[in-house]
Design goal:
It catalyses: Couples ATP hydrolysis with the unwinding of duplex DNA by translocating in the 3'-5' direction; ATP + H2O = ADP + phosphate + H(+). It is a single chain. Helix 11 links the parallel strand 9 and strand 10. The chain starts with a helix and ends with a strand. By secondary structure, the protein is an alpha/beta fold. It contains 15 helices and 17 strands.
């Protein structure tokens, strides 16, 4: 069935949905190679969400073909805008901290003008989240905003009659941004790319576009990539809704993909994880905290053997770290290992400890991939490890207050959505393992952990 997908007609739109470990990234690359080898030698673009996965894909095979480009979305977008002379050399893109500052300024302005309006007294986080929603769906007018169905956002209580106030803050944010001669932010760059492409009568650079990890792309990102595809070419979208960890309220179904061309192909066979890890991942997805989606693919595994995942309890953080370091020492020269952390501060913590004992791990980030076929140890956040695989996976600090992240939960617009998104991080981490899955915590176990699952063993550490 996978071979059929690779050789689909080189025209029209195709959607491929697959569970973790079903070979989506491999399919994306082989589809790309198939297309580059066509007699006309067409130009093919493979786009993914982060740079680490780009490097991983480039290293998977000999892909030094002149008519094949592999890059992340924002590199594509900036390159296109730069080609038009519309990407400033410096400071053209608003960073998240500055975006929050501008939105705060806009709020203060309207709070002074309309002190009686309670909407403007709501937390800035709600406005940041809503403006991101407006941008990712390409909404440009109040009329569009009033008409749009707010996909998956019922948990955020914004009455339709109050949308005009949110849109006013959005417009003021845009005015403040333009004052600083900053043309874009990371959420609306895709809209500007799309608009430019609508007016660009030049021949498209790419005949075929393939999107990997597409569940993390906003609707405007996908629309812009479709617009960047030769009208006689093909657009292929690969994704897994269970791993939506960047903006999980957005759906590929709102992105202009014509599923009538080549249909939707679904792959449920997991070639990466042993059956017991695949079963444990199902238990994570069956949690009451998980926000379910009709496009969810339930995995079946063809890898029968493997040890049960293990959850180890420790009384202190120090004991937990000591145990993980001992395990890394025992495995660093015989297998590929990764420690998956909730944030960069924890990554840095483990890096320092490992370095002190003469082990120099690779830190996976937006510029550095990790490779499951290389013996050693990598450190990664949950977000950066997407699409990668290792023989042994260690997930520390599954403690209440750390996972879910206490600060994010406290400032959340919707706690329900935050808990679901955090749970998906655990799903992503668990499904990186080709053999061993070692999870640990100190003091209180996270409410998100599927304690009732029969597909893991629990143990007490060296306390």
């Amino acid at each position: 069935m996978q071979k059929e997908v690779l050789a689909l007609p080189a025209k029209g739109h195709t959607v491929i949905l697959g569970t973790a470990g079903s070979g989506k990234t491999t399919m994306a690359l082989w589809r790309a190679i198939f297309l580059t080898n066509l007699p006309t030698h067409p130009n093919v673009l493979v786009v993914t969400f982060n740079m680490a996965l780009v490097k991983y894909m480039r290293a998977m095979g000999n892909l030094n073909k002149k008519n094949l480009t592999i890059e992340n979305y924002h590199k594509f977008a900036r390159g296109y805008l730069d080609n038009l002379g519309k990407m400033p050399k410096w400071n053209g893109v608003v960073n998240p901290d500055d975006k929050e500052y501008y939105i705060n300024e806009a709020l203060e302005y309207y709070r002074c003008r309309f002190p009686e309006e309670s909407t403007f007294r709501r937390p800035v986080s709600i406005f940041i989240d809503e403006i991101s929603f407006i941008q990712k769906f390409g909404i440009e007018t109040l009329e569009q905003y009033l008409d749009v169905e707010r996909i998956g956002r019922a948990s955020v209580n914004i009455k339709r009659e109050n949308r005009k106030y949110f849109f006013a803050i959005y417009k003021e944010y845009m005015r403040l941004r333009e004052q600083k001669q900053q043309s874009y932010d990371w959420d609306d760059m895709a809209l500007y790319v799309y608009k430019e492409l609508q007016n660009d009568i030049r021949k498209r650079r790419y005949d075929h576009v393939i999107v990997d990890e597409g569940q993390d792309f906003s609707p405007m990102m996908v629309k812009s990539l479709i617009a960047a595809t030769n009208v006689n070419g093909s657009f292929t979208f690969l994704g897994d809704v269970a791993q939506q960890i960047y903006g999980s309220r957005l759906s590929w179904r709102d992105s202009g993909i014509n599923i009538n061309d080549n249909g939707i192909w679904k792959f449920d066979v997991n070639y990466r994880n042993p059956a017991i890890i695949s079963a444990f991942a199902k238990d994570i997805a069956n949690s009451k905290y998980w926000e379910h989606n009709t496009d969810m693919i339930s995995p079946t595994s063809v890898i029968a053997e493997g040890p049960k995942p293990v959850l180890i309890q420790f009384k202190t953080r120090e004991k937990e770290v000591d145990w993980i370091i001992k395990m890394i020492r025992a495995n660093v020269n015989i297998s590929s290992n990764v420690i998956i952390c909730r944030n960069r501060a924890i990554v840095d913590e483990f890096f320092k400890v490992l370095k002190r004992i003469g082990i120099f791990p690779t830190i996976i980030d937006r510029n550095q991939a990790g490779f499951g076929n290389i013996k050693g140890v990598c450190l990664s956040t949950f977000h950066a490890v997407k699409g990668l695989e290792f023989e042994n996976v260690f997930v520390p600090y599954l403690s209440e207050g750390i996972f879910p992240d206490g600060e994010i939960l406290e400032n959340a617009v919707s706690k329900t959505t935050v808990l679901s998104d955090e749970l998906k991080l655990l799903y992503v981490a668990a499904t990186r393992s080709k053999y061993g899955l070692f999870m640990s915590y100190h003091q209180s176990l996270s409410r998100l952990f599927p304690e009732k699952s029969i597909n893991y063993d629990s143990a007490e550490g060296d306390n």
